[in-house]
Amino acid sequence: DSGAEAVAPVIADLEGPHAVEEYVRFALQQNPKIQAARKRVEAAAYRVPIAASLQDPMLNVTVFPESVQTASGEQEMIISASQKVPWMGKLDAKAAVAESQTDMARAALAATELATVAQVKRAYYNLYFLQQSLAVTEEEQRLLGEFRDVADTRYRAGTASQQDVYRAELEISSVESDLIRLRQQLSSTRARLAAVLHVAPQTQLMAVDRLPAEEIPLDLELLQRQAVAARPELHAQLAAIGRDRKAAELARLDYKPDVTIGFSWIDVASSGISPVANGRDALLLTAGVNLPIYQKRLNSAVRAAEANAVATARDYDALRDGTLEDVTDLFAQARSQHELLVLFREDILPKARLTLEVSAQAYNVGEVDFLQLIDNWRQLLRYEINHRRLEASLRQTLADLEAVVGGVVVTGANLGDDQTQPEIFVE
Asked: What is the pTM of this model?
């Protein structure tokens, strides 16, 4: 039925764990915003020959209700045709404006593709974070169940309070509520990713269990230069500057007249009231020009076009400044998140795990109370979740950075002892 046809299909090949690159490739082919942007480029390209073409010629037919008597014979009908020919350079200027519009559409397509890639990656890495958070929370819940069993054993042996058992049960219920919330967020994130891929929301999209080693940018100035050279939004603004300059040139050409040439053919009857009627048809040639005499209108049009060109150039400057700011901010975020990630991996998590292990052993022999054990367990769970969040956030920041610089950032994170400068490529 029509309702079923309106829902995007479930793609079985996309279900289960997949690398982010597979989802990116699929989105670049299927995302409706990208497909719409491609059609806008096609439509803009078709407008170039339209702008470069002459207007349609005019054909007029005049029929006399009553024949006009002349010495040459009766005139019964007049057929005339005319063609307007713009001043030299006007058609080229119009075509250049249309070509700039096409360049803007191409840049908009590239920007849409980069934005879509960033959306896929942000949703994917959020999906990864939620999957990992669920796995970590379930594992910590299992560990908490072991603590409860120990507390119950000690309570039965008379070496611990029943309060410890109740406290463990309460914590298990609290963790279960966290799991319910995480599963809801997982479903919502999966639907968000499915929307970007243009597949059914119920498609069981999944991130891989282990991400490749993260790569971080090393050279801020290199990123800034690349962003100015490659960001599609800046290219679109440059194309807009070219369009407005050509529009100003076209406005100045309006000071020049256009020429209209044509002919008229008069059908003359073979006899008339005059004895010298020859019945020959008449052919008339015509030429005319418009008179650009209203200087106030023409001057205003030129000044308006020039002001618009200057405004577009200033918009480019503002966008470039904003781009440099975004690159600097995302660069700083990525470096900070990477440093925090290293701190968690090498210092905080090992210490938190060791602390919980020691406190669990101490509780078994009655050297610490259950509240201290639970507090250490909570700390470890919080650190584990924050570690997974940092993993996802770093890669989301890098995805945003790719969109700003106009392509994939190839960093030197895996260069080892090689101190050569990292490179940045544009897809």
From this structure: 0.85
